[in-house]
Hints:
The protein is of the alpha/beta class. It folds into 2 domains: 6-13 and 217-345, no CATH class; 31-210, P-loop containing nucleotide triphosphate hydrolases (Rossmann fold, 3-Layer(aba) Sandwich), CATH 3.40.50.300.
Amino acid sequence: MAVEKLTERRPEIGADELITTLVPPPRFDDVRLSTYIPNPDEPSQAAAITDCGAFAERVGAAGAKRSGLRGLFGRRGSGGDAGDGKLGLYLDGGFGVGKTHLLASIWHAVPGPKSYGTFVELTHVVGALGFGEAVRRLSEHRLLAIDEFELDDPGDTMLVGRLLKELTAAGVFVAATSNTLPDKLGEGRFAAEDFLREIQALSAKFGVVRVDGPDYRHRGLPEPPAALSEDTLLASAEQRPGSTLDDFDALCEHLASLHPSAYGRLVDGVPAVHIRGIRAADDQAIALRLVALADRLYDRAIPVLVSGGSLDALFTPEMLAGGYRKKYLRAVSRLTALARDAEASAPVSHG
């Protein structure tokens, strides 16, 4: 029985689709602030619900356009509120504390027009449409929600700084998530001191809401399921119509040929992804592409089954000690959750 391969897919996203597809991924279609269950041992989570709700109300009441704004954003004050009247909200915390749930809930609570995308999707929109056209289209929205806000190189730092300056001047509200406080963005990844001014300018645009707590995906079960045998992996792929089966090395090569913003389209509609011969990534470029793929698989709740090495050995100790550590740990967390989903949906033998 023939099994489909991701390496045989080459998705393309037209320029006109870029803005219309800026919506929360399927996993977060039904999330709301009311469905976020705060950890009783982490008071910041309940406080974050209040702050996010207040922010959504401000966005909804403000209308589509505002101009002549002064003092747009600022750091959270000692009073504990994320900032009455502020136009930016930054959700900071470790992976697995529900920041994306909160961000998508804000998006759902706000009337349109509005947009939601990951940081890499946003930079791709600017690259595909051109800066001026991207600003023109996004300025028509009352909210821009940015998930996984990252500054991995100087070019992106300056690009996003310019973009947010233009959008906020047009009255667009901005909400974002990341695992790094705004004034620490870029730290350990490039020569941050050379771009300190740009980083600080971005930092000044957000009121910060801290979301503390352990990774909910790993409570009580930190280890990923064991890798499957080659025969078991093939049998699983054959028993799940429409699922895919790829060799790890070939998949990594294919990912390098696509822009990361296309990874979501690459896996759309796939009921399960099978990867044969998992091993540690060879270098940082491959590792970061795997992070982006893991995020898109998680967004779509697509179960993942593998043979070869363990998912928690996908990134080398050197990578886990470097500037992208939080990205790699998030990817392992999400892939582990998807591997458990695979076990739960169709248990198979580890023979």
